[in-house]
Amino acid sequence: MLSRKIIDELTAVLGKENVLTEKEELACYSFDATADMPQSMPDVFVTPTCTEEVQKVVEIASKNKVPVYTRGSGTNLSGGTIPLKNGIVMGMVKMNKILEIDAENLNAVVQPGVIIQDLNDAVAKHGLIYPPDPGTVKTATMGGSVAECSGGLRGLKYGVTKDYVMGLEVVLANGKVMRCGGKTVKNVTAYDMVKLFVGSEGTLGIITEIIVKLIPAPETRKSFLASFKSLDDAANSITGIIASKVIPATLEIMDNATIKTVENYAHVGLPTDAEAILLIEVDGLPEVVAKEAQAVEKVCKENNGQLKVAETDEERDNLWTARRAALPALAQVSPTTVLEDATVPRSEIPKMLKALQEIAGKYDLKIGTFGHAGDGNLHPTILTDERNKEEMERVHKAVDEIFDAALKLGGTLSGEHGIGMAKMKYLENEFKEAGVEALRSIKKALDPENILNPGKIIDLEG
Amino acid sequence: MELELNTVQQIIEIVGEDNVLTNLEERICYSYDGTFQRGIPELVVFPANTQEVAEIVKLANKEKFPVFPRGAGTGLSGGSIPMSSGVALVLTRMNKIKEINSEDMLAVLEPGVITGHFNQEVEKLGLYYPPDPASLKTCTMGGNIAENAGGPRAFKYGVTKDYVLGLEVVTPQGEIMHTGGRTVKNVTGYDLTRLLTGSEGTLGIITEITVRLLPKPKEIRTALVIFDKLEDAASSVTAIIRNGVIPATLELMDQIAIKCVENFNHLGLPLDAEAVLLIEVDGGKNQVEEDIISIEEICQNHHCRKIHIASLAEEREKLWKARRAVSSAIVQLKPTKISEDATVPRSKIPEMVKRLREIASKYNLHIPVFGHAGDGNLHPNILADKNNKEEMERVQKAVDEIFHAALELRGTLSGEHGIGIMKKPYLQWELGEVGIEYLRAIKRAVDPNNILNPGKVF
Predict the structure, then answer these.
(1) Fold of the domain spanning A333-408
(2) In chain B, how many domains are there?
(3) Angle in degrees, 0-180, between the axes of helices B427-446 and B389-408, rounded to the nearest 10
(4) Which of B124, B182, B224, B314 gives a 20 to 30 Å CA spacing to A211?
């Protein structure tokens, strides 16, 4: 428990309305969107309204050696925002202003609490887009998605959050403010601290301002749904499309378990007898889109796919509603959904899909797989019930094997969700001792008292 | 400090006698880079593989001698200069392309591979590695990654860091570490791959590189546009981008640069023009045609004198010859070239060009301006004679003002050359005491004995 004195200090800095201490209120910040994680209550929840207030909170925390857990909307999927060691949860939602849209230089300056969709709506007026679009684009904050380096459906062609962050203002563990990067496309002034912060999950500093790159909105786009009688055909189509030198904006896969569940939930007319479907979107200039669409059709047909083109905006929206419904639909079938994001090189997708089927069979579990096939980032989702102890043991073994399989195929533990608490114990499997030691030494150097989001990514005791 | 004979003997045992240079004459060859900085290493060593690099670095930690990793030595910030001590570790023998994978669109290679050679190899397979620093015929991929090299195509395609997927690195303690991997998405732990890219050899020695590739663009058109007024060229650049055209390259040369190039290889450039723009668009056939028409219209609206358009590879190469020759050609004016790469947000290009002209006349210096106008990365080059003390003092003042101007316009000290030794004194202007302390904390944490490339960056 924090002493009354610390609470008073925080209240003096932030005002009463920005300091919550009631148990009922605090409970809301004891968990995030990740399943199968311990809950942990913060001692206090604070909502600073400007960088200076963030600084003061960190100074108080640093002086009293109290942990600070920074939090946006809490939509993350690796337990990254859970206040494991109690202390202060700092909600950034009140710092939610879009400070500048610089259409001439194709960038925008935002505060961390801005909702991703709100930024996209604001830049749309200028004919621009901010491409990263995690599934939670309507609730997730910019600060959270920078801290976690979120991906999304358009990662294949447009890259992930880190490819769009140009500059940051950060409050460091010692309470000082640092600015890195800036408004230029090129910047090699000293180490790339911007990229070090992106994806550091709130363990190295607190992001208080973000400069992001924007791009012109594509003129046209075309969406397809291709259904397949076999997973292999679907997988071969994925590699075939890329091999024909077409890079779709989106290339998503859903297996049979997911198709059935989504159809049952959203009734959008998905073929429930298909082993797999691909959702594909190409975008760009009209003539480019036409050409790429032809190539996509050809490859899918060669691989025995049934093709449906979205002719109207409504049909297109329906397709993407189906994809975005995948997770909520799966979640509705069972009380607990354990969602992973182990990622493999694209050409290894067929092997990964097969491995997932085998793992599901071996541990007698229901695993629905969907995800960003184009960039190798699948989301195997285990449907389970955390109250069933025996089953959860099987789930944990299956998760171990999923990560093993991904690493063996030259992949990584996490494509877009981050390590957080959920994947900490696997970190050494990927980074080996030298890598873990490098991460640990950086964390220790930049946050010597371990007050920023302690207990995440790396075990400092190790 | 001096290397003990015993230490030299141990290094010879690791790499073999043939791969160590001890003679002064030979060592001098490794004392410089593309700047006018010098520092003769005590020993030059050519390791053959990762294991040898690791053993040398382990020995360096034990015996506390500095190690200066080096590729082809084309750096423009003094980044690879051995500070008159220790070992220059030259990675040019590690020059194999290990894999080019069309399915996953990636390649795995050793650091000593020449960038231009690698470009050619991937293009044979219909693939494309966009970063193209001007020195691509000699520079190495390892050096490109350590410095995070840019190049003309960065405007559309980004810089080296946008293509590095994974690295094998020998840490400052001599351990072998793998970062990133073969996937486009990877958020496992801190982004050590990006931290090492551009770290100028101070945080680890890159021994293997995995890069992302793109499909090769189908069509390319190049336009050389001549302007009577420099201001018109600069404002054309912003207008092109504002119109939604994203050329692969958008290069600017001012009058001094034009004169030097013309004198150097007689390409028929008009000597009375104040500026030329070299613009290249790529993509599908219709798209490049549409783009080139828009570019023509915009340049005409901005009072250009003439436009040459080339689509055949041969003709395009001729137009490019001028741009690639600039850096060598301008040395005709004076022997010492101080090449800067202060970068501004691209809407500030006209303002930056104006300020550079004022600085040149204020200090009575030759400052040809050329560079990557599209991404705000100009290369003002100050030409002087380093033996002329009085002139060099004026140069120093001009450099100060150039950096001031860039930062005032919300730019950065370095767009693509890195900090090295040359820009160290200015780092604080951009990052402040807090930022520098942060950099130091990282360096001290991973290289506590300060073995790797000491004296650089900060």
Answers:
(1) Alpha-Beta Plaits (3.30.70)
(2) 4
(3) 90
(4) B182
